[in-house]
Design brief:
With 679 residues, the protein is an alpha+beta fold. The protein folds into three domains: 404 residues, no CATH class; 101 residues; 108 residues, no CATH class. It is built from 20 helices and twelve strands. Strands 4, 5, 6, 7, 8 and 9 form a six-stranded antiparallel beta sheet that branches. A four-stranded antiparallel beta sheet has the order 3-12-11-10, covered by helices on one side. Strand 1 and strand 2 form a beta hairpin. Helix 7 runs antiparallel to helix 9, helix 9 runs antiparallel to helix 10 and helix 11 runs antiparallel to helix 12. It is globular and about 80 Å long.
Length: 679
């Protein structure tokens, strides 16, 4: 198939798309070399050339992706990637999903997201001068060189097929089974790729030796962006696993799930550590190390996902990019390590830690808990690989290890979420601490009483409920205390006082809103994982399965077809303890989906969602002659509150990111230097 360009000149999708990638590779190489060289030698006159090269790279990668989408929409099977994942029967919306449904397309999509980040960063600082922009863009462009090289070489999706087939297999059926696959991968990509920006800023700051507010302020803000997207992506991924895979869960400690969790842990610890750096001039080396580690772990996670070293529902097949990724991991690890060693001696703390019983002490303990959690997850994820490589023996590390080893870390982190905000900076007086504990202590007792009343018996769950009450009370008090002061001093109404107090300290207020979302997730995970009830059985038409006081009645089989699949469902009616009913027939019923090129059917569970519980039913087998059906059924308490937390996290992050005012010094000029040794 050919695409018309200009005055009747025809260019194939393959030639156009690949040519744009090569142009992007050249532009990124120029931007990386000139950006770093001009930044290190202080040649600011070359900055416009760096910006121009970034614009060229961004435009090239975006247009290359749009060309691939055009090829997918118009079924151009002469393009290698379209031949792999395209199909005339694929619905239009899932043709877009096909862009990231396999290895080569996912790397191409990664390149576009990276191009957008670099474009936005360059436009935001288009009037700024100096080494901040030059060195940051130079490092980011160097990362872009690697991914553009991948797309042009080992992961090239643009290879032309001389004699293409008339149709293709379509994307993975699992990716066509739920609308979440339209949102979940882009959110993860925005989180993964977004780590490039704080990595570029942190590396640039260390290269320049100028650890000032002019570097730290954008570093913190740009770190919140991938934190938000990665949080949303992880939660949406758990929702997809829950709503699509039908196994009765949402998190299995799958290696590729862990690959997303690892950089999230690092960037979360970094965001907390920046508070100590900015307020006390401490933890400088540790903070920057966390910022660099988040990016390194992102690349490690990408390697896990795309090299085929793990067998996972998420991972791609074996590919040629594994060795290339390993080399890049070694390069960025050595670069980061050397940079920290060379500059580390200059990053002296300006004020020593006076007491563990302080705000900075609790944040340090919080960071240590995150570090222990990160080590636990990383060890459990890569140990099977090391074992197989060294001893040729395959082992698996599953949920028992991760749950047992990570739970103490999660509990400690939740506890410190409550302790930290109620501690003053410096050294806390015992009387003040005891006074501050009165209200949160009452919240903890309420959480404990609620867990007992609801019949919780699992000690970890009881601990989570108790600490959730404690943290919620601390967080709500910190949220509303400034508003209460305004109400007393300025006689403002509660709403006005809350809005104005929040606008005066948006980062603080937004952070506490995010904390409330995390508390909700903690409670939902504890309830749904420890108090779930499961039954299974085979029933005939009119018979019921009973699970936790709910009855699931089998009403018969139904079937249907869509352009890309056929399906058979088991119509059911859920009868609640009070006698009310919810009918789930047709596409709303638990069903099996049959795809032309898929040997085994792909199941879709039925989920009757409620604020306090979900009734979850999977169809395991059916007999159309009897007729009868075999079901797995669960009742999950509070599980929906995991996904309901997304708007809270988004709201809190937006509040924290919203600028206090368009002050020139925040956007362009170096602000007051953060106290330091002599960086």
């Amino acid at each position: 198939m050919a695409e018309v360009v200009g005055n009747g000149v025809q260019v194939s999708h393959s030639n156009l798309g690949y040519g744009l990638v090569l142009l992007g590779l050249l532009a990124a190489t120029f931007a990386a070399f000139v950006g770093l060289w001009s930044g290190l030698t202080r040649r600011e006159t070359l900055l416009p050339w760096v910006r121009g090269a970034v614009y060229t790279f961004s435009g090239s990668m975006i247009l290359s992706n749009l060309t691939m989408i055009h090829a997918l929409f118009f079924d151009d099977f002469s393009v290698k990637y379209v031949a792999q994942v395209g199909s005339k029967a694929t619905p239009p919306i899932f043709k877009v999903v096909s862009l990231w449904s396999a290895l080569e397309g996912s790397i191409l999509f990664w390149g576009m997201i990276l191009a957008v980040y670099l474009l936005v960063f360059t436009l935001m600082y288009r009037k700024a001068q100096g080494r901040f922009v030059q060195l940051s863009l130079g490092i980011m462009a160097a990362v872009a060189v690697f991914f553009a090289f991948l797309i042009a070489g080992p992961a090239n999706p643009w290879t032309a097929i001389p004699n293409p087939l008339s149709d293709g297999p379509g994307p993975n059926p699992l990716l066509q089974n739920h609308p979440l696959m339209i949102i979940h991968p882009p959110m993860l990509y925005l989180g993964y790729v977004g780590m490039t920006v704080p990595f570029g800023i942190a590396s640039g700051a260390l290269l320049s030796g100028e650890i000032t507010a002019a570097w730290m302020m954008p570093l913190r803000k740009w770190s919140m962006v991938p934190f938000l997207f990665l949080s949303i992506g992880i939660i949406l991924g758990s929702w997809w696993a829950y709503a699509v895979l039908g196994w009765g869960g949402y998190w299995a400690w799958d290696p590729v799930e862990n690959a997303a969790l690892l950089p999230w842990i690092a960037i979360t610890a970094f965001l907390h550590s920046t508070m100590v750096l900015e307020r006390k001039g401490s933890l400088k080396l540790w903070t920057l190390a966390l910022g660099l580690a988040a990016f390194v772990l992102t690349i490690v996670g990408t390697f896990m996902t795309r090299s085929g070293v793990f067998n996972s529902v998420h991972s791609f097949t074996q590919s040629e990019i594994g060795p290339t990724f390993l080399k890049f991991i070694v390069i960025i690890f050595v670069f980061s390590f050397v940079l920290l060693v060379v500059r580390g001696g200059k990053l002296q703390s300006d004020s020593p830690l006076e007491s563990v019983a302080s705000r900075e002490g609790s944040i340090l303990l919080n960071n240590l808990a995150f570090a222990a959690l990160l080590f636990t997850v990383l060890l459990g994820t890569i140990f099977p690989l090391v074992q197989e490589a060294l001893f040729n023996k395959r082992i698996s590390v599953g949920e028992p290890y991760f749950n047992a080893m990570s739970m103490p870390c999660w509990i400690l982190i939740l506890f410190l979420m409550g302790v930290g905000p109620m501690m003053p900076w410096g050294k806390a007086e015992p009387d003040l601490v005891l006074k501050q504990l009165l209200v949160p202590g009452a919240g903890a007792l309420v959480g404990l009483a609620a867990s007992m009343a609801l019949g919780a018996r699992n000690p970890w769950a009881i601990g989570v409920y108790t600490l959730a009450g404690f943290v919620a009370m601390v967080t709500l008090r910190e949220l509303f205390l400034p508003a209460q002061s305004r109400m007393q001093e300025s006689k403002e109404n509660p709403f006005t006082a809350l809005v104005r107090s929040a606008s005066k300290a948006r980062r603080r207020f937004g952070g506490y809103v995010v904390h409330l979302g995390i508390v909700g997730i903690a409670v939902a995970v504890a309830a749904s994982s420890t108090a779930k009830v499961h039954v299974s059985g085979t029933v005939k038409v009119g018979e019921t399965l009973e699970v936790a006081g709910h009855k699931v009645r089998f009403d018969g089989l139904s079937s249907g077809s869509e352009p890309h699949r056929t399906w058979t469902g088991a119509d059911v009616t859920v009868i609640f303890p009070g006698g009310s009913e919810a009918v789930h027939h047709g596409l709303k019923a638990p069903r099996m989906n049959f795809y032309e090129r898929q040997t085994d059917p792909v199941g879709s569970p039925m989920v009757d969602e409620g604020a306090l519980r979900d009734v979850y039913v999977s169809l395991m087998a059916f007999d159309s002659k009897t007729p009868s059906a075999t079901f797995n059924a669960w009742v999950f308490p509070l599980v929906g509150w995991i996904w309901y937390a997304i708007p809270v996290l988004v709201l809190g992050s937006i509040i924290a990111l919203w600028p206090q005012g368009r002050r020139r010094e925040e956007r362009e000029a170096p602000a007051k230097a953060i106290p330091q040794g002599s960086a």
